[in-house]
Design brief:
Blueprint: H1 2-7, H2 15-22, H3 30-70, H4 74-109, H5 114-135, H6 142-163, H7 171-196, H8 202-207
Length: about 210
């Protein structure tokens, strides 16, 4: 987890600038890589907006839980706590999507030649497809944008394979790398959710339930 979290730290240099430094000006894949990263950054901006809305809703519902507990209204406190739990599940899912896309950008930034492109793009495409699937019901507009990103990545993969003599892609390794990115993004998302949002104490709610006459 420690090493993975460090991978998310930026060196302060703009992403597109780093790509321009790494990919040769004569590389035919350079424009597509830059465009893919640009679209991913746009999508991440939309995700940030969604996270802000989720955070506002979280704060409002949490306040209702607190207010209900102060009034000894355990029934409503429990209802609001359940609603809050669902909102936070969405928050974790969206946070995980953003972290996964950040890792995609970092992977694209490592491409220095055609061989790198063939190795990097395959697992990256799997991650992007997974993110699109997760966001489908939460951010319907994201589906078209994610599809556009995947189309560009697919073009890069095809062109890289063609220019690099149809280098064989190890699908097992690609799948393992994609799963690793998503698993680590999920773990880090859970960590960030714990840091950002206060927990609702369920035990006090259970202990303060009104007695039931039998």
């Amino acid at each position: 987890m420690g090493d993975f979290a460090k991978n998310w730290r930026s060196d302060g240099k703009p992403v597109l600038s780093r790509v321009k430094d790494r990919v040769s000006p004569n590389d035919p894949l350079k424009p597509k890589i830059i465009e893919a990263e640009r679209l991913i950054k746009v999508q991440m901006s939309h995700i940030d907006q969604a996270l802000a809305r989720i955070a506002n809703r979280d704060a409002a519902i949490f306040q209702k839980v607190v207010s209900s507990l102060q009034k000894k209204d355990i029934q409503h406190a429990a209802l609001y706590a359940n609603e809050l739990s669902e909102v936070r599940k969405l928050g974790k899912l969206v946070t995980q999507a953003k972290l996964a896309l950040e890792q995609v950008v970092l992977r694209l930034d490592t491409i220095q030649d055609l061989g790198d492109a063939v190795t990097v793009i395959s697992p990256v495409m799997s991650v992007v497809r997974s993110v699109g699937s997760d966001l489908n019901n939460i951010m319907p507009n994201a589906q078209g944008e994610i599809g556009e990103i995947n189309n560009i990545l697919s073009d890069i993969l095809v062109n890289a394979g063609s220019l690099n003599g149809e280098r064989q892609i190890n699908t097992d390794t690609s799948s393992e790398e994609a799963d690793r990115i998503l698993d680590e993004a999920s773990s880090l998302a859970e960590e960030r959710m714990r840091e950002l949002f206060p927990e609702v104490a369920s035990k006090p709610i259970q202990k303060q339930r009104e007695p039931v006459d039998i």
